[in-house]
Amino acid sequence: MAQYFEVHPDNPQPRLLKQAVALLERGGVLAVPTDSSYALVCHLDDKAAADRLRRIRGVDDRHHLTLLCRDLSELANYARVDNQQYRLIKSATPGPYTFILLASKEVPRRVSHPQRKTIGMRVPEHKVLQELLALHGGPLLATTLIAPGDTDPLNDAHEIRSRLEHQIDGVIDGGACANQATTVVDMSDGDLVLVRQGRGDAAALGL
Length: 207
Description:
The chain has helices at residues 14-25, 47-57, 72-78, 83-91, 127-136, 157-164, and strands at 3-6, 30-32, 39-43, 66-68, 79-80, 97-103, 118-122, 140-144, 170-173, 183-186, 193-196. With 207 residues, the protein is of the alpha/beta class. The protein has a single domain, classed as DHBP synthase. Strands 1, 2, 3, 4, 5, 6, 7, 8, 9, 10 and 11 form an 11-stranded mixed sheet that branches. The protein is globular and about 45 Å long. The model has no long low-confidence stretch (mean pLDDT 94).
């Protein structure tokens, strides 16, 4: 049975978020709110948790997972970006964008794309998630919470709990999210390629 943490969307209770962090430290997979839809997250360095996250989402190792970062300096530790890419990412963060970038050596090879050695990176603009990341002290491995067989992401914590309560370890209810995934832009080859149009305005990136 998944633990349920109902937190204030603007002033989340640290006591509850610390309990959620403890679940992550023990190998838990959690559903958390973001500035797009809800996402599944786990500890970056926990192989078993990452494998569970993929199974719940119904994807294999060729599906790009994403690192949720607190800020650009943290993102730059886990991805290889040049000055031009950094400026472009800075113009769109924090926000509902995911950037496919070349992974640095800080990213475990088992979570990056097996052929391309790339990883999704983003800095979300969501108070609850930012507080969770701060208490965790590092990025979280994540994927958009789209249930197998569905086409749209889940954005209601009560529905997530009822559908996935025996598969995940916790749900952080920070209120309803936008019912739309992030906009995904691949920057790994030097050019900008729009992979998915989502909540983020691609025109803001010149696409």
